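If you are new to this repository, start here. Below is one unmodified record pulled from the training split, so you can see the exact layout before writing a loader.
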Amino acid sequence: MKTPDVSYPIHTDRPSPFFCAFVIVSVLLSFMVKVQAQRVSARSIALKQQIASAEEQRAPEEKIGALWLQLANEYQNHLDLPSAEQAFAHAILLLRSADSHRDLADALDGLGSVYLSTGRVPESRILLRKSLLLYRELHDRPREAHLHEALAIGFLLERHYRDAEKEASETLSELQEQQSSDVAEREAALLTRSYARTYQGRCRGAIEDTQQAQTLVSTRLEANSLEAATFWVSRSFALWRCGVHDGAEEAVLKALEIVNSHTDLPRPLLLSYRLSVLQQYLVYLKDTHHKPEAARVEADIRQIQEEMPTVCSNCTVHAAALSMAMLP
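And here is the target side for that same chain:
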C-alpha cells in the first residue's frame, strides 16, 4: 500500500508488500499505526526543490504531478502520513492527461491507503476502486491483486465480512493465475480472509487459511521476521475465537517476542506493533479470565499509549481529489 524517473515513477520505492502486511494486522485489530516522520529525508528536500523549479518554469502538469507523486511516496516511506496525504492529493489534481493514467492510479492507491489506515474507510474505497479500474485498463494484474486486498481490509473494518472474504479470495485467485512469487501479498490475503471467516464463524476455513500462511512463513520467510509475527498474531486470533485455546496464547506471545526483537525499527513504529499485539493479548486474557496477567498487560498498554505520537488529529478529506476519483 507504498517511489525514481520524473515522468514515469516506478513502484519499487513504495513500501514493500510486507510493510503493508503487518500494518494490515494492526488495522484489522483497529489499532492504527500512529507514527510521525523521524527526520526529513534528503530526497524529500530535493523533490520539493524540483517541484518549485518545475512550477516556476511552467512545466506540464503531468510532470509536476509526477514529482508530487514521488514526494508522496517518499513521505510514506518515512511514515509521515499527513505530508504524504497532502502530496498525493496534489498529484491527483495534476495527473489528468491520458498519458498519466499509471501515475494517477498510483496516486489514488496511495491516498486511498492513507485514508484506510486513518479510519476514513468509505472515502478510501472510492479512491481504491478508481485505482483498480485504471490498473485493469493498464493490464497490471499484480496491482489489481494488491488493490483487492486493500478493499478487503476496508470491508473488514466495516464488519462486512462476506465482502472482505470475497475481495481477499479475489487477491488469491489473481496471484495464483499469475503464478506470483509475492509471498507477502499472498500471506496478507490469507490472513485477511482468515479474519473474515473467523468473524463469520467459519472456523474450519479460517484455520486452514492460517495453516497455508504458516507454510509460506516456514518455507519462504525468516523465522524472526515481522512477516512471521504477522502470522503468529493472526493464528492466535483464529484459534482463540474458534475455541481452540491450545496454542493460542503461545502464538501471540511468539508474535510479541519477534516484535520486541526488532529494536532497529523507528521507535514509534516499534511501539505501534507492540500495541497491536498487546491489545489482542489483553482481549484474550480477559476472555479466558486471567485477571492478574490482564492487569499487567493493561499497564504495559497505558505506558505505550502515553509515549506514542498521534498521526491524524482531524482526519479531513480532500474533496477535490475525491471528486477526481468519482469521475468516469
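Two things worth knowing about this chain: The longest helix spans residues 267-287. Confidence is low (pLDDT under 50) at residues 1-38, 321-328.
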